């Protein structure tokens, strides 16, 4: 049984101090200086992208040639391999036009002279003053009594109807 508070002992005997664990590489084992100084780099090969087949153009060409059956279309597709044109569309794997940048444009730099002279504070204060003047004018307009029909008729009375003294004969007894 193991002793209390101590791990169990290993049954295997360990090799001596001159034993090397792992595999010893005679050609490459130069330690840290060789690892830092000689990186194994991979040369990038130019990748030529194969464009997909343009079935619309091939179908149009087959009709122009007079193909009518499915077998004739298949033979035409087999011998006339038309590929899509590379239009430099910005998709994954396509070419990017020179001079094109992605992302948001940088903000224009803040003129430090205006910051030091508190120019932005003055502009803000002018805006606040203009806003309070507008609010004051609007408040004055709200305080006025709005004109309704009664006040309008008091100021502009309707013309008085003139009474006519002629009545038809049949309404005389009424």
TrEMBL record:
InterPro entries: CFAP77. Coiled coil: none annotated. This is CFA77 protein. It comes from Pomatostomus ruficeps (Chestnut-crowned babbler). The gene is Cfap77.
């Amino acid at each position: 049984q193991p002793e209390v508070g101590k791990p169990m002992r290993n049954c295997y005997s360990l090799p001596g101090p001159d034993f090397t664990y792992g595999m010893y590489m005679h050609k490459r084992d130069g330690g840290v200086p060789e690892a830092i100084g000689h990186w194994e780099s991979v040369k990038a090969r130019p990748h030529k992208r194969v464009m997909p087949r343009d079935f619309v153009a091939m179908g149009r060409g087959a009709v122009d040639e007079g193909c009518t059956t499915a077998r004739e279309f298949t033979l035409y597709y087999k011998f006339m391999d038309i590929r899509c044109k590379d239009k430099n569309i910005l998709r994954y794997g396509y070419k990017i036009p020179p001079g094109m940048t992605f992302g948001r444009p940088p903000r224009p730099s803040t003129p430090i002279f205006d910051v030091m002279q508190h120019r932005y504070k003055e502009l803000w204060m002018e805006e606040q003053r203009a806003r309070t003047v507008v609010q004051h004018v609007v408040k004055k307009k709200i305080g006025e009594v709005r004109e309704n029909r009664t006040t309008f008729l008091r100021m502009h009375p309707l013309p008085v109807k003139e009474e006519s003294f002629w009545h038809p004969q049949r309404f005389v007894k009424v």
